[in-house]
User: Fold this.
Amino acid sequence: MTNAHAASLVLIGTLAVAPLGAQRLAPVVLTSTTIAGSAAPSRIPVPAAAPSHWLEGAVIGALITGALGASLAGGLCGDADSGGSGQNCSLRALGGFVIGAVPGFTIGGIIGGAFPKAPPDSTQ
Assistant:
């Protein structure tokens, strides 16, 4: 590294640090949420989460992507061009199912959670 490079790095570093301190609009003031003399802080009740189809979406997503992973792993295991021996392919297909099912479960749960369940019918 030449002296010109070192000098430019020092200059850039010096110029970049100064604006960072100006980002705060007001000084930080610590406040307390409890009132002196009270036995316990007041708690705000948290509403219950609305029921959704997250579990159904997670299971469907895991089954679909798990089947695709098992198919891919089993196909690559039996393929001589990709170095597969053709032996123990069911174990590799099971591993492919698990590897495919984990992200499918997560993504399916997120998608299913976007759809709320209908309220239960209260007719008698």
Q: What stands out?
A: The radius of gyration is 29 Å.
